[in-house]
Amino acid sequence: MTELKGNGMTINLEAETADEIWMLVANQFRDGKGSWQNSRAGKTTELLHTALCIRNPRQRWVSSRNPVLNPAFAFAEVVWILQGKNDSKFLNYFNRSLPKYAGTGEVYDGAYGHRLRNHFGIDQIERAYNVLRENPDSRQVILQIWDVSSDLPNDDGVAKSTDVPCNVCSLLKVRSGKLEWLQIMRSNDVFIGLPYNIIQFTTLHELMASWLGLELGHYHHISDSLHIYEGSIERVISSNALTSPANLDHLSGSYDDTLEVVKSISLGIEQIIDESVASGTLADRYRELNLPQPWLNIASILFAEGLRRRGGREEMEAVLRTCSNQLFVFLFERWLARTAKRERD
To answer: Which residues does UniProt assign to the signal peptide (predicted)?
Structure first.
């Protein structure tokens, strides 16, 4: 891990993996580098203008966060984004606390995938792929999420929505046969948001590189306000580095093939979130999937979570046995332990 000191205006942190970056960020707050700042949701300690660099974006999981991340929710978000969706029920099934942060409507106004694929009347992901395929030297590929007409507050300072996107834009560059990705965020909650944001956009990064036949470059992540809410500070600064398996899966394939795979998983999720679908039917649906193994590993965690929630323990364990990604199994088993403890308490 590398900690690069800033010039008084910025903080620069670089590491091989997302988990190492998480620990470097935790150390900044543990060392008292944050400043107290009020917000609409409560008091925070904040680092301004923080630049993070992950040299190996495939190692995108923050395994040292305690409590453990919800892996099925993370995967559902990725599918939701790639499908360009904004319906809230798709995600709320996997994270029942989400409406508390993003609102209680049928859609989420700031949905990243909808912003990228539908909101502005152009599929920005597809256009970015086409542009870089034809002109890899381009410096004009920017994926825009922020919409000033709907996201800039009213004149009285009141937010227009409960779900204003924290991600502003992505900047893509091809250099030396590698795809470099820069993600810019106006606001970034270290405990709740950062680990999931890294998963979302490093996955897009890896997929875009694969579609273009490029090597995966560095993932850069700039948070203009990197903060922790007062109630989560102890959880972050008490984090201890946890040894976990590496992510050995590569999400390869063409643009068109990827869309078909993601569509298939999305249809599976629609059955997962339909609580009228019984455990046996859901397990049968999983067995019918015909996906490349890396994508099947993702689907296995989603279906395992659906079966866990239905009390289908045997079916859940059978699905997990088909997952060849030991990191995903490790994370899900920790998630099982977390949910079991919560139910006991």
So the answer is: none
Binned at pLDDT 50, 70 and 90, residue 5 comes out as: low
Contact 57, 206 (CB under 8 A): yes
162 and 37: one domain?
yes
C-alpha 6/C-alpha 25 separation (Å) is 14
In the chain, DSSP finds a helix count (H) and a strand count (E) of 14, 9
Q: How confident is the model at residue 164 (pLDDT cuts 50, 70, 90)?
A: very high
Q: What is the pLDDT of residues 301-333, one digit of tens each?
A: 999 999 999 999 999 999 999 999 999 999 999
Pairing of strands 178-185, 11-15: unpaired
CA distances in angstroms from 224 to 29, 127, 158, 234, listed in the order given: 16, 27, 20, 22
Using DSSP, state whether 310 is helix, strand or coil.
Answer: coil
81 within 8 A of 113, measured Cβ to Cβ: yes
Which pTM was predicted? 0.96
Q: Are residues 44 and 192 in the same domain?
A: yes
- How many domains, in total, are found in the chain? 2
Share of the chain above pLDDT 90, in %: 92
Q: 266: domain range?
A: 255-344
Enumerate residues 6+ apart whose C-beta is below 8 A from 338: 67, 68
- CA distances in angstroms from 168 to 34, 52, 198, listed in the order given: 23, 16, 14
